[in-house]
Structure formats: structure tokens, C-alpha cells
Amino acid sequence: MEKEIKLEIKELKKYYPVLKGAFKKVVGQVKAVDGVSFSVNKGETFGIVGESGCGKTTLGKCLVNLQNPSSGELLYNDTETGVKNALNLSKKESFKMRKKIQIVFQDPYSSLNPLKTVYSAFEEPLKIHKMGDKSKRKKIITEIFELINLKPEFMHRYPHEFSGGQRQRICIARALCIEPEIIICDEPVSSLDVSVQAQILNLLKDLQEQKELTYIFIAHDLSIVEYMSDRIAVMYLGKIVELADAKLLYKTCKHPYTEALVSAIPTPDFDKEPIRNVMKGDLPSPINPPNGCSFHTRCPLAEERCKIEEPNLKRVKGSENHYVACHLVSTVEE
Amino acid sequence: MLSYFIKRLLAVIPILVLTSIIVFAGLQLAPGDPLTHLIDPMEMTADFDREALEEEYGLNDPIYVQYFSWAGSLIQGELGYSLVNGAKISDVIFRRLPATFELAGAALFISSILGILLGLISSIKPNSSIDYFGQGFGVLGVSIPDFFLGICAIQIFAVTLGWFPVGGRLEYGTEGFLDRADHLIMPALILGFSLTAAVMRFTRGSMLDILNKDYIKTARSKGIPERVVYAKHALRNALMPVVLILMFRLPFLVGGTIVIERVFNWPGMGSMIIEAVTGNDYPVIMVTTLLVSYVILLASLLVDLITALLDPRVRFE
Amino acid sequence: MSEQTILKVKNLQTQFTSGNKTVNAVNNVSFSLKSKKTLGIVGESGCGKSVTVHSITQLLPPLGKITDGKVTYIKNGNEIELSGLKKQGRQMRSIRGKEIGMIFQDPNTSLNPVYTIGNQIVENILQHEKITKKHAIEKAADMLNSLGIPMAHTRMNDYPHQFSGGMKQRVGIAMAMVSNPSILIADEPTTALDVTIQSQILELMKRIQEDYGTSIIFITHNLGIVANMADELAVMYMGKIVEYGSTRQVLTSPKHPYTEALLQSVPFVGMDKEKRLKSIKGSTPDPSSLPEGCSFASRCEFATEECKVFPNEFHLGDGHHVKCWLYKDKEVSIKKDGKRDKIGN
Amino acid sequence: ACSNDEKVTNETDSLDNESSNDNSNDAKTEASNEALLVGDGNGEVFGETFRTFWVDNPNGIEYWINRGLLKRDADMKNVHEDLAAKYEVSDDELTYTFTLKDVVKWHDGEEFTAEDVKWSIETAIKFPTAVDTWYAFDAIKGYEAYKEGEVDNLEGVKIKGNTVSIELRYPYGMFLQKISNFDILPKHLLGDADIVKLQQDPYWKKPIGTGPYKITEVKFGEYAVLEAFEDYDGPEPNVKKVLYQRIPEGKVLPKIQAKELDYIGALRNVDLVDQISKVPGYKVHKVPQIYNRYFMVNMKGSQKLEDIKVRQAILHAIDRKTIVEETFKGQAEVADGHVPPSFADEHNKNIEKYEYDPDKAVELLEEAGFDFSQPLKIAYYYDNQETVDLMNIVAFYLEEIGVKTEISLLKGDLLELIYHQADYDIIYAALSQPDPASAIQSYSEGSLMFQTVWDGYQYDQVFSLQEELAQTSDLEDRARLIKEIDKIQAESLYILPFYHMNVYAAVNESRLKTAGEYGNEWVDYKRHLENWQLKN
Amino acid sequence: MKSVTTRSSIVQKQWSNLKRNRLAVFGLFIIVVLGLATIFADLLTSYSPNGVDLSNRVQPPSTEHFLGTDKLGRDVFSRVLYGGRLSITIGLCGALGAAFLGVIFGSIGGYFGGWVDRILLRLSEVVMSFPALVLIMIFIAIFGQDVFNLIIVFAVTGWIGEYRLVRGRFLSLKNEYFVESCRAYGMSNLRIIFGQILPNAITPVIVSVTLATALYVIAEAGLGYLGLGVPPTTPTWGNILNSAQSIDVVREYWWLWLFPGSVISLFVLGVNTFGDGLRDLIDPNQ
Ligand SMILES: Nc1ncnc2c1ncn2[C@@H]1O[C@H](COP(=O)(O)OP(=O)(O)OP(=O)(O)O)[C@@H](O)[C@H]1O
Ligand SMILES: Nc1ncnc2c1ncn2[C@@H]1O[C@H](COP(=O)(O)OP(=O)(O)OP(=O)(O)O)[C@@H](O)[C@H]1O
Ligand SMILES: [Mg+2]
Ligand SMILES: [Mg+2]
Ligand code: NI
């Protein structure tokens, strides 16, 4: 089956200025996202993992236009109008774009305005995008409520009357109600209790099936990303260090960082070797990322070359869908 | 630390300039005319030479010239002359400032010590009777207008009991501080009263806040005695916002000084400001407000410094 | 049993009262900690894990109160009843830090920002040992060094904000361990940390246990971590221990429906994508208005009428206990000494 | 000179002084035993610096330390020699010749000369706020040219040895009285100062004069110590030392009750005078002085009061007698004109009186077709409590007869607000004047009032009387003219007279024996300071 | 399941919480009693606040004149009531005006950040470095004594508190996910600011307005005492106290200052305790 590319990112960068002093002089830059390229196919789930602060959220926000990328291209394949670079759209077009890509945030507690009823949380986006009149909107919302397994009579309640899991379902539903094609899930379960995480993950899977949605699934928990995604990108300090099919990644990870990540995942599986590859040191500051391979400061295998030369993301030799940015892995130029 | 201080100092400069411009501009807006305070308008005759007068007071230069000549001479320490009585402002301030500093300083000293102490006591046993007493005192302190309290105090302690003089600061023949301490006690206490209450309330709130912090739990988990937990771990953290609030309260203190000086006939800057305002004495208003605001800015610098001393996060910023 | 018990908690009940609401944050909890072993406590947020361990050292928030139960610390055969001590009394304080060290969840907030980390560690030493300050500093530096903080001597003059999260947690551990306590209570010590840092800290804690022979109470909500860390495991739900046993027992053959569901609701690496996760319906009830009976009943797929009454504890052998009516018939009645090791009512 | 004294009663600055309850240290008691303790009833004395003696109501201390060529009697009419040994007036009353005393020394030892006199007159003409000399110095020959700076020399003033002759362009009836109130300042100290910046000269920090006392110590805002001047050319004063204190009004009574004040003049606070008179040993003396309270009518801007009946009605509506009796406890009199009865010669008993008669007031208003729906705008510009009280009383009485009122306090550029914007129907004023002629001066052609808000209401009869008055020096003629002008005022009511306030001086008679003459505190008159004596 | 909660039931719940705070209820009681008394002053006294009665000057309290009479024979009780009406209005309007400015500036500065914010911040620092009373006095000297001017002046000099509060709230709230998601589906900035964030930032402002009202009532009294408040011919609490500047009033006519002063203190006390109660309700930690 020929895969249809839904979204393609080329060399996306987002630098935040570091301001200092009374005059707010720019003294440096946080390279939150530093040259990321990938493409997402229609209907797939593209997972992104990485440690805290590596730029996952920033990337996600860039994709939905909540942050203006510093540079790069964001090609969006609209079912109606074809491929467009989402970064240089007119105001009107970008408003339309918003309808197509939606985002679900990490914290369902702060994702809903505590002073607005859930109903109005749904109604606002519908109103803004002029979807239907009052009764039509009510119908849409009622349907959505059923879709997420909530009783429609809860519609007029305030967010604080819902549990975390319910809220996250509401957030997902709200993102869905304007019928987007892509949903970015930024750590949608990490602030939920373990017992309700599964509800959300299952719901996301069900919805994807029903609505042919494309997901970009962000998390720092490799096991969850792996479970949810078709392909996974591993981020480190604003860059993708490894990108592969989910099944492959866990078994045949190439990058030392991915290895460390995989081995650090605690599993309640007694047969698994306990922690074997403890990585030294902390994540360096993205303000002054190390030269060369940004991972070399923590890499157990680092060589001289790694300190000087920055590795590019290249395809792993002998593997079709597996890319890695490491000097120590034999790759092929494309 | 030094460089931090210098940086803070430099950051204040634009505010200083802005302040002076605002003060100047504001007073240009004033329709007031000091001339009519020299001579009753009813006595003015038709051939009264107004222009000469304006020239006498330099009121007819273009505005920016007035500003620059004013600002220029300010920098040289030349503060100008009062329109109303022709006195050299620097002389007047020099004469009045010590009185105000004495009063405000005493009030600030008393109230910060007392306020912090009371707040601390209150916070250690929240909802105890001591705490209720403290809270009651706190809310009373911020509720009673200080001049009213002053009037009551005069009536009770000066008029009825005769413990303290009715007002004033010094008199013919008295020189030393102790000679006039009896004049100072009542106004300083009254002026400090509401500040004490405010500081007390704030210290209490801040302490209760800090006592909920995780690191207090950590400290307790080490088995150190409660008094060390309070004195070492909680107080220093709680003090930072208190120092800040003291700073924020400083303008109130100055405002209070104005009123209290009036109540107690204290010959300080406050009465001078009132006089200048009622007399439309521009130069004096300008210079004194500017001076007061600079003192407050200076105090804010000081507060920053203290905060930096108390809080390494600021220091190493 | 050959293993020595070092801490015994019996029928502990801790309440929070605010206004007219009373929350039984910890309800009838009993467990014991064996010397040089690790006891894991898992459970969802708000199930009472922290309150349980804070009750041991009586470090409860102002509104919290131990209303029932006994906490006994056993040192060299001497039993000290901690629950009978005065909250801030000398005896209680001599236990804290000296006998029982604690590490908290968020290293970013659990260190006092205005004192150097050296100061904060030394404080603990000087409180419990009669040595000179110089010695204490030496000792603290050694401790930090052994926990993998390079140049410990100079770094001791740094303030917490100059440290990264992982380093701060190491400082926290150093602070708890520096007086060489017999028990270390770690309240979700890695939840706020990244996976890679988390594994560093976990390694460290294991090493400490080996080096110092410390008994550890390890709180987490991550089943993966307990599998690695704990010898015994208590699963808590709404203030009660619903299942208790060796880690292997509990994780490989979970008995309580809650434990079981919990295990099946998290994906693990390499899991079959097509397989649906098991989701527990509903969410945790409001702790201030718990229904009668088994508090899990409303979410339990096996719930019956019986669950309207709170289940007894059933002993399934090898120290595996569960509180669920499903096991009322499966209880192995080994009453060796005539006494039934009963946890519940 | 006269004064805007109302404004200073609200004096904030204040200073130290002793309360009745404080009986502190010996040094002070000693000091007070030997010194005459004088209070500044005026309230504005040397707050921050001394003010140029020529401006309106400057310090109150200058009468102790400085002098003019002549000195008036306490009744403000006749004059005597002071710095001048003798004076002559030419028959046409255009030339005045003053022969100075031979040896007069300034406090710094320098000799007083005719140069000082000439310099003082010239400088005062150029000094903008030298109120005292208005009108009088205008009459000097060459005034215009000198004032405009066309010439360097004032033509009318000539000196020859120790005589000074002043030539006028036209007769000025009050010239001698005016010159008697004019302080001569030392040219050798102030001669080089920029005239418009004269006030800023360091001289004013501790001024010197030729008077019987010199300043030895000043604490601005608090007190000044005066000592007898050893080279004084007149009789040596009995009292060698004077402690001149600045006392806020509120502190006068405690001070007096503690017997820490021997003399204080210019007392106007009714309650205070009442209470002082009850303190044993003290006596209050009523001072012959004109101090009037009245309303000016806005004749031009306000159509409402155009009809004289309305103006009459306002006076009829207000029970001035009760106000005077109740709130002033008899320390004031209802005014019909501008000259109080105490100036018997100039007081006109036969002028129109407007008694309290609300019914008549209503009647008059109705006759005049007064629009009761529009409020009467009352303005005032003194912001003290007493004025506010009076405004409230006036408003109350007017509202009793159905006239709405709108009271506003003018602030800011008063000249502009009063004379040009003039957004009021009546405006309150309270002025003290040294003599009857000055009291009626706003009814002269040169007054700002006539030139602005009374514009168009020419009053030829008054103007010619005023002109005659200005040129007449004969006291009887003057009295007649003043009476006449006052009568016209009372009939035309451009000014609504309210009352004459009494002014008092308080003396601790158990300690101080004064010469028994008390005049207008704001004017230089013969106090016979050298005869003052401290008992015991 | 729980019954459906509506906004009014939230209010009800808060109200019942408030009721439990006895001090706050006490404060509210004072506010209501004094407020009603001033509103219905004409029912409580037959004397006009400006009714001069020169034959009855400075009478001590009696059955006829409940709180005595002043120097013009006006009934002090009536003046205190009518004066309170204006004083409370001034205080409240001043506080509301200041809050309005503070909220607008704070929302705009906090939401947009950048140079707008920096300018506002500098401005607030400058305003803050002037003592409010001095600033107010200068403003009054410039614009004249007038009730409306006084309110404006209070607003112009008093917005800093609310500004900082709202700005702070905005700074933290603008990064909350619910705001981000509003932006994600394309809501306009104005709607986000005023429709979404502001309601969440407004509760502390309510407390602040309450406490500011107390502050301004005191400020009005202080200014009136100094003779710099509203025109002295209008009775307000401050202007009534103006007479207490002279020591003989303090000595001899205690009822002229003791009663109005006590009423001010009582009212402010009520407002403060009520404000504290409200704050406890909103932020139980403080
Ligand atoms: N608005 C901002 N201004 C400046 N720096 C920012 C901003 N937002 C994020 N950053 C910085 O960019 C980097 C990447 O942040 P981002 O939130 O994208 O990380 P993340 O991978 O989502 O982390 P987490 O797992 O904690 O959510 C961080 O170092 C962060 O400090
Ligand atoms: N300070 C407090 N005041 C009132 N109730 C409290 C307080 N602390 C805890 N509780 C109650 O005790 C219960 C258990 O809290 P506890 O902190 O022990 O949970 P936990 O299992 O540690 O959760 P987490 O995983 O979030 O740390 C909570 O549900 C709460 O209702
Ligand atoms: Mg993130
Ligand atoms: Mg916890
Ligand atoms: Ni005069």
C-alpha cells in the first residue's frame, strides 16, 4: 500500500532567546528544537520520545502554530487543497489550518477553563469555526459525548466535577469536535493515575480507527510510545537521534542513547534483566549544547570524532525504515 | 555580589530620569500660580507687574529649557529656591530631613522588629489564642486611621495623663537626642502602629506559607529541634517577602509621616510637602517628591540587596 | 522466620479533619519491615502512601492525626513505640534522621534554597553526633563523593539551585543517609526525574542498601520500579493495603482484582500492539465520602453483593495476603502458632 | 500693607514649643526668665527664611530690628520721625524732604546713609512684590522711566548730604504714611544683588537693620533670639533679650497656660481669645485695626445679581447679627460699610443697613424675578476651616429662603480664576487693611476688580471722590471723602459687607509691662519698645 | 452520582464556607449595617447634615443630638451618616477604578509581554516609587478638589496592586493548557484575554478591591483631615475630622472627632475582616 504523506517537516528549528538584565538583552538562545525533519503518513501514529526538556512539547506546539518556528518548513497535505507550507500562510489560511491540526495537552487539569462549563468548552471552537447553528452544535456535542463514553447530561458541569481521566477524555473530544485530521498528543497520560491511563490509550486507539486520524504521540515513557506508535523518533537536545519503526526500535536500537533509554525502562517483568546500562550524567543545558554529537558527554562509547563532528540522521545500513544519528553506526548516505 | 549591585544600580537610572520627567511634566500641568500665594488676589492692582514677577521666578522660559536647567542644577546639588518664601530648598531640606528621618526611622525600626516578632509568634501556634490576639491586633492596626489614633493618643497621653508633650520636636535650649526623645515616642509609635500590623500580618502569612514547604518537612525529618526549624529554615525564607513588603510599605510610611507630622506638629518634610502643595510652590514640590521617590528607590535597592543576601538564587542570577 | 523485623506497623489509622469533613487517609494499615530488606508500597496518587510513612515518624501536616494503631521500631531487640512519642519531643527527634532517614518526592522543593547543601547535610550530622564541625564536613563530603558527586568538597558550598534534579536527589539521599540510619524511607524518590536519571538513582539506592545494610521503605506508583527494587510489596488502595506479599508473588500472580488490573493496564516494551490494554473503569472515589465496604467495588469487574462489606484479609500462603472476598474460600489456614497474622478486621 | 491673613491660619509648619505639661530642663527655664517671650501671632514668621521686608505681610519681626524714615502712631494716622530727624512737606505737597539723623548704625557697625534710602526706594520700585509701595511710589517723578529701565536714576529722589528729597508728579495724600511703613534696607549688603532675585540673597538668613534689637540666633521655623543693639541711636531698651517664637495657632493656648509667652499680637481666633482672657495674669487688648469679611459681586459675568434687589436680598437673608453673636462671641461687628466704628472719624453711621429679614429678602427676590431654580455660585479661595464654616452658614441661610447654592473652592491660578474666568456670582474675601482709605481702595478706578469683573459698571462719582482722596492729606477732608465713598458702596452693593473682625494682642501682665499702645500688627507703628519692661 | 452543580450552587457553597468564618461574617455585618445606615440616613435622623443652628453650637451628646453638635450647631450624627455615604462611595469607586486600570494594564501586559509589558512595568515602578499620598496631594493640587477628581486620583495612583496581581496571574495562566488550546483552535486574543483568562484572574482582584476600599476610606479621611480631600463644604468623614486639627477641638470637643473617627475605624475594620475572610476563602494558605 502506498503511504500518503500527511505532514512533512523539514529542518524545523525553534530557538528561544535568553534574555537578561534590565534591558532584556538577548544573551543566548535555547535551542529547543534544532533542525528536525520527518514525515508523517496518513493514519499512522508517529511517536516522539525523549527526556524532559529535549524539545518535544516545543515541536508539538510548532506543528499546531502555537509557536512560530525560527526556521524550517512545515508541509501539510490538506485533503482539499493539497500540500501547503503551513508556515507562510495568510491569516485566513492559517485559521483554517488550525481546524485541521489539533493538540491534546499533558495536563487535563489545566486544559479546561475551570470557570466554563464543559459544554461551553466544546461550543467555543465550534462557534469560532462557524460549525452549525445552536441546535446543530448541541447535536455535535452530544454525539461526541457519547463517543467518549460520558453521559451527555454531564455536559453542563464544571471541569472540577470530573476526574482526571474524564477530563482528558473531554480534552480529546474537544480537539476532535472540529474534525481535525491530525491530533498531536503531548504526553496525554503522564499526569494521570496508572489505573486510568489505559482508558485514554484505548480511547485514542479506538478513535484513530473510527475517524482515520493521524497522531503524533509525544511521551517520555518509551513503553507507552512504543505501544501506541507505528514509528518512533527519539529526541535528544532538540534533535532526532534515532527514528525507526516501533517494533524495530526496541529490539534493534542503534543509538547509545536509545539503548540507555530502553534499558532504563522499569518493567514489572521479572524475567527481564534488571537495569544494565546506567547512563552517566544529566541532560546538558539546551542553551549551550555540546559541540559535535550532543550526546557525547554522556555516551559510554564516545570517541574523539563525536566531540567534533555532528552526526546527521542517516539510514541504517541494511534496514529500510531505520535512521540514526551516530558516528558509530554504519549508515548509508541517501 | 558587587557586580549584581552595580547592575541593579544601573537599572535604576532610567527610572530616576523618567521619574524626574514625570514630576516635571506633572507640575507643568498644574494651573496653579504661586504668585497669588504671595499677595492676596484681592489686593492686586491693575498695574501690578506680573511679567517681572514671572521673570523673577523664571516661569517664562520654554518648558524644555526649564526642565534642563532644573535637572542640570539638580545634578549639581543646586535644588533651587522656594517660590513662596524664597528660601533655599537645600537649606530647608537639610533642616527638615533629620526630623523626618528620625521619626520615620524610629517608626520603621520599631515596627519591623515588633511586626516580625509578633508575626512569628502568631504563626508558630496558628489558631491559638495568642494567634487570635495577634490577628486581631493586625486587623485593628490596618483599620484605624493613624491620624485618628494620633488624636486619641494626644488626648489620652498628653492632655489627660500628661506623660508626653502635645507635639513638636525641639525647643529653645534643647539640643541632644535624649532631650527630645519624649517628643518622639508618641508620634513614632503611632506612625509605626499600622506598619507593625501590616508586617505582622504579612510575616504570619509568609511563615504559614513557608511552613507548608517540602524543605521544612525535610528539616524536620533530620530530627532537628522545632526552634531551629523555625529560626533557621522557616524564618529566613519567610523574611524575604517580608522585606519586600516593608519596601512596598515605605511609600505608605512616607504618606503616614505627612499626616502624623501634622498631627504632632513635627517639623519635618511632611509638613513641608503639605505647605508646598497648598502654596503651589512648584520647586519645592518637585524637589521633595523627587527626593522622596529617590529615597524609596534607594530603599528598594537596599531591599534587593538584602534579598540577595538572604536568597542565593537571586545572588547567583 | 530468620529475618529480623525492624519496624512494625499495626492497625495504623490516620485522619485528616478539616471543617466537618474527615478523611481516613490511612485506614487500618499493618505491615512490617524486615532488616536489610526493601518494602515497596505502590498505589495510585492519593491512596495514602505518603501519609502512611509520615505517620511513622509523625511528620504529618497540621491537620493530620494518628487516631489509632501502633508503630514499633525495633533496635537491637529493643522495641520503641514510636506512635506513643510526643510529636516534636526529644525522643522522636532522636529517631528522625538518626534511625530513620527520609527522602522525598521532589528534590527541587525538598531542599532549603537559602542554605548551602553542605550546611544542610552537616546539620543532620551535628544534630545526632557529637563531633566537630570540621569532622562533620569531612563526613558529608565523603558521603556525597560516594553518591557520585564529583568534587564534593567544593560543591558543598553550592546552593541547591546550582544543582540539577538528579544531583539534588543525591544530596537528599546523602542527607538522609549521612547519619547511617537503619531505615530509609523513600517517598517516590524518582517520580520527578527523567528515566535515565531515575535509573541512576535506583542503582544508587540499591548500592546503599548493600553498603550500609539499610532497610528501605520504597514508595512509588510505578510497578516497574518496585519489581526492581522491592523484596516485599504492599499495594494500597484508598487508604488500605489490599494486597501484601513478596514482590514476585504479587507481581507474577496478583490476586486482588485491583493489582491485577493495574498490571495489565500499563503497556510494556515489546508488547503486542493489537492487544488492548485492560482499563479500569471509573476513577478513584472521593476519599472523604467512601462507600461502605470494599472501596474498589465500584470499579471492580468481579464485584458482588458481598463487596458491600469490607473484606477480611485472606492469607494465601508464603506471606501473601489479600483483602478481597474472591479469596474467602482459597485461604490457606496455616495457623502455626494458633495466631492468625491478621491485618484487616 | 495689609494681608491675606486668612490663608496663613492654616499654617502647617509648626514648630516647637512647649506644652503645658512639659516642665523640662533648667537651661530653658533660665533662658525664658531673662528673655521676653514673644509669640508670632501672625503665624507665618520665618518659616524657612526671612522674607523681604517690602512684601506683603512678611515676618512680623522686622519691627523689632528695622526701621523706616518715619513711624506712624498706633491709630495709623499721624506720623513721627524715626530714621529721619525731621521732615518737610512743600506747600504744593509735591516735595518731601527728609533730614536723616546724624549717627545711625546698622547692626553690623556700618553707618546708615542717605544712599541707603535712595537705593531702597529705587530697588523697591523694581522689586515685583513690593506691595507696600504700590500707589505711593507711582507718584514719584520719573517713576515710569525708571521702572521701564529707560534711565538708571530715579529722577524724583535726590540726596544731598544727609537729606533726601522726594519729588512727586502729583499730590499723594498718604505719602507720609506710606513712607513710614517702608523699611530701609542696607545698600552695602544688598546693593549688588540682582533685584528680581533679591529674596534669594543670603542676607535674608540673618537680616540686619537699624532697629533697637538685632538678631543673634535663628532657628528657622522655631525661634529667633533678639538682643538689644548696643549702638542704637534711640533710648536704650529695658528688655535686653527677646525670644521670638513661631507658634502654630493650636499651641498658643497651652503655651500661655504654661506662662511661656509674654506677648502675642494679631490674635483673631475667637475661641482662643476667649480662653486666653480667662488665664490669670493675661490680658487681651483689642487693637484698632480694620479687618473685614465681605463678598465681592460678579457684576459682569453674572446676570443673576444684576438687579440690586437681589444683592440686597442676600444681605437681608443672612442673619449676620446672630452669626456674630453666636460664633464670634461678640468679637466682631456686623459691617455695613468698610470702615469699622472703631475708626470713629471715618466711620459713616448713616449708611444703608440691611437687617436680617428673610421675608423681605424673598419679597425682593420675587420682585426682581429671581430664578430660584438656578444655584447661586459662591466662590472662596481660603482653605481654612473658619472660611469653610462661614460658607456653610451662608449656604444654609440662603437655602432657607429657597436660594440654591453651589459653593466652590478656587485653586490654582487665582488671578485668572477670579478676574478673568470669574465663574461665580459672589466671591468671599477677608482682608485686613492698615487704614480706612486702604479699606475702600477696591472701589477705585485702578483696582483689578473694576477693570475686570466690574467692567462696564463705571462709577464716575466714586472715581472722582477717590481721586480727590488720593491727593488730599488733610485728615478731616479725608474722613469726609471716605465716609462718602463708603455710603455709595453700601447703596450700590458691588461688595456685600459682612462683618468687621476684631483683632487682639495678649499680654502677660504679671510679667510684662508694655507701653500700652497696640496697633495693627502688620504695620509699622510706634510701639515704644524701649519702654517695655519685664517685672521682677 | 452527585447532583448537577451550577454556578449558583458554587456561590452557595462559598457562601456557606464564608459563613463559617465568623470574623468575615462580623465584617460583613458591620459593612451592611453601616452601609444601610448611610443609605437610609434620612430615615434615621431628621437633621440635615448642613442644618446650621447657631444657637446650638458645640453641644455635647444629648438625647436631642445623639452625637452632639459641631461648631455651627450641625448635628454630628447626621453628618456622620451623610458623610459616610460619600466617603464609602469615594472609597469604593476609587478602588473599582484602580482595579479597572490595574486589570486592563495587567491583562494586556501579562498576556502580550514584550515591550508593552516592559513599559507598563517601568511605569508601575515609577508610580510605586512615589508615595501615594504625596502623589494624590499633587494631583489634587493640579486638578482641584472635587469628588470625581478624588476618585480619579485614587484610581490613577492605586492601580499598581491590581496590576501586579493580574499581571502575575496572567503570566502563569497564559501558559496554562486551556489557554493554549483556545489559541490552538484559533480564538482571538481579545476573547482569550477577557473571556478565558480574566475570569480566572479576577477572584483575587475582588479581595484586593475590598481591601483597597478600606484603604481609600482611610485615605479620604486623612486627606480630609489635612484639608486636601473633597471640597471642605461637602460633608465626608474626612472633612468632618478636619476640625480636629486644632488642639482645642481635641481637648474640649471630643465628640467632634471621637465619633466620626470611631465610625471610620469600625467601617474599615469591617471591610478588612471581610476582605481577609474572602481571601481565606480563595487562598486558604494565606
Ligand atoms: N517559552 C519558552 N521560552 C524559553 N524557553 C523555553 C520556552 N518553552 C520551552 N523552553 C525551553 O525549551 C526547551 C525544550 O522545552 P520543551 O517544553 O519543548 O521540552 P519537553 O521535551 O516537552 O519537556 P517535558 O518532557 O518536560 O515536557 C527547554 O529547555 C525549555 O526550557
Ligand atoms: N495536608 C493534608 N490535608 C488534608 N488531607 C490530606 C493532606 N495530605 C493528605 N491528605 C489526604 O490523605 C490522602 C492520602 O494522601 P497521600 O499524600 O498519602 O497520598 P499518596 O499516596 O502519597 O499520593 P501521591 O502519589 O500523590 O504522593 C489524600 O487523598 C488526601 O485526601
Ligand atoms: Mg513537554
Ligand atoms: Mg505522596
Ligand atoms: Ni497688606
Give a description of the structure:
The complex is a heteropentamer of chains A (334), B (317), C (345), D (536) and E (286). Chain A is 31% helix and 26% strand. Chain A is of the alpha/beta class and 334 residues long. Chain A has one domain (5-332): P-loop containing nucleotide triphosphate hydrolases (Rossmann fold, 3-Layer(aba) Sandwich). With 345 residues, chain C is α/β, with parallel strands linked by helices. Chain C has a domain at 257-268 and 275-342. In chain C, strand 11 and strand 12 (321-322) form a beta hairpin. The relative contact order of chain C is 0.13. Chain D is built from 18 helices and 21 strands. Chain D has helices spanning 5-8, 26-34, 62-65, 114-126, 143-147, 175-180, 187-190, 249-257, 270-276, 308-317, 320-327, 358-367, 385-400, 414-421, 436-439, 448-451, 460-471, 475-492, and strands at 36-39, 70-72, 79-81, 84-89, 95-100, 157-160, 163-167, 213-219, 223-228, 241-245, 263-267, 282-287, 290-297, 332-334, 376-380, 405-409, 426-433, 495-501, 503-508, 512-513, 533-534. In chain D, the strands form 5 sheets. In chain D, strands 8-9-10-1-11-19-12 form a 7-stranded mixed sheet, covered by helices on one side. In chain D, helix 10 (308-317) packs antiparallel against helix 12 and helix 17 packs antiparallel against helix 18. The longest helix of chain D is centred in the C-terminal third of the chain and has 18 residues, at 475-492. Chains in contact: A-B, A-C, A-E, B-C, B-D, B-E, D-E. At the B-D interface, helix 2, helix 3, helix 5 and helix 11 of B face helix 2, helix 8, helix 14 and helix 16 of D. The structure holds adenosine-5'-triphosphate (ATP) (2 copies), magnesium ion (2 copies) and nickel (II) ion. One magnesium ion is lined by residues 56-57, 186-187 of chain A.
What are the key terms here?
heteropentamer; B: 317 residues; 13 helices; C: 345 residues; alpha/beta; eight-stranded mixed β-sheet; 28% helix; disordered C terminus; binds magnesium ion; binds nickel (II) ion
**Ends distance of chain B:** 10 Å
**Percent in strands of chain B:** under 5%
Q: Any idea what the shape of chain C is?
A: globular
Category by helix and strand content of chain C: alpha/beta
Mean pLDDT of chain B: 80
What compounds sit in this structure?
Answer: adenosine-5'-triphosphate, magnesium ion, nickel (II) ion
- First-last Cα distance of chain C: 24 Å
Protein name (chain A): Oligopeptide transport system ATP-binding protein
Keywords (chain A): ATP-binding, Nucleotide-binding, Transport
Family (chain A): Belongs to the ABC transporter superfamily.
Organism (chain A): Virgibacillus subterraneus
